Amino acid sequence: MIDDTLRPVIVAKKTNDAHNMVSFELADPDGAELPAFSAGSHIDVTIPGGLVRQYSLCNSSSERNRYVIGVWNDGNSRGGSKALHAQVNEGDTLQVGLPRNRFRVPRSTKRAILLARGIGVTPILSIADYLKSQNIPFQLHYVYAMMSPGSFDGMIKDSKFAENTKFYYESTELNQLLDAGALLKDRPEDTQLFICGADWWQDPILKTAAQKGWAEERIHVERFTAKVPAAILDKVFDVKIASSGIVYKVPGDKTVTAFLEEQGVKIPTSCEQGMCGTCRIKVLEGDVDHRDKRLSSQQKDEGFFLACVSRAKGDLLVLDL
Ligand code: FES
Q1: Cα of 267 to ligand 1 centre, how many Å?
Q2: What's the angle, vertex CA 194, arms to CA 26 and CA 277, rounded to 5?
Q3: Out of 60, 88, 155, 176, which could bridge 129 as a Cys pair, Cβ 3.0 to 4.6 Å?
């Protein structure tokens, strides 16, 4: 679902920060203030061709004159990043939604550890700026992606949180990878962990955090690349719409949201990767094969599922629609 409060912004600045990494500074066309955002927020960006993609805001949340997004154009781009790199230039107009936040810094935060790798540092930058402005002690551990040396290092070195930041150059020569076990060991109970990077990098760290006794509510994860397995030849199952009683057979090559939309049953979606939570539906009956990166264990226990990626373990799901 695209935010219905889309607004035009102009590309005030486009900077090639590093290999395959471009940042865009977006501003109101008339120089007005932009809607405020909190640290860790992202915006929907409508890209030439009609694609909608979400990008984290990496500038200071105290700024009202611009949104800054970093766009990494990797080989796995589903088209959005590629189009932004190739087709969007300074002076062009884009449509963006209101800032939303699923990576919020809790008000109660007393201290924090921030872990980021590669382009995953974008939401972490605004969080670091916020923590610094609030005098909340924190450390930022930033692993450079191997293919993008230099991304954001200038911005960090010029920032007020430069002294809180440790860089890790991920290369075959130096290989200074962070030691998550040591970093996460024996931290005070009021420490919050914020982490953003590729799943293959952050999932083992999250496992380590759990082993070191970090409670789920102290761990804040942002996923910028969902590695959702394609549904090709996946299990076929039925979904029943509780209000109408109609049963639909979901084929193995379609998601629940895509298939139901074809049948005229529209479930709002945004990321379509199990990350944003827009397509959350309550399941009244049936076992869910959860494939999202968003729901907490509690939400799953309460019967919710994300219909854009998750499926049924058994033969039937009854949906509260
Ligand atoms: S549309 Fe974002 S989680 Fe389903």
Answers
A1: 10
A2: 70
A3: 60
Which residues form ligand 1's pocket by a CB distance below 6 Å? 269-272, 274-279, 292, 294, 306, 308
For residue 49, pLDDT beyond 80 = no
Compute the distance between CA of residue 259 and CA of residue 294 in angstroms, rounded to an integer: 21
Work out which ligand 1 atom sits closest to the CA atom of 307. Answer: 4
Torsions phi, psi for 168 (to 5 deg): -125, 115
* CATH level 3 topology of 237-319: Ubiquitin-like (UB roll) (3.10.20)
Q: What is the pLDDT of residues 123-175, one digit of tens each?
A: 999 999 999 999 999 999 998 765 555 678 888 989 999 999 998 877 644 45
Q: What are phi and psi of 259, to 5 degrees?
A: -70, -45
For 189-221, the DSSP string reads TTEEEEEES-HHHHHHHHHHHHHTT--GGGEEE
Per-domain boundaries in the chain: 7-96, 111-222, 237-319
How far, in Å, CA of 265 to CA of 55, rounded? 28
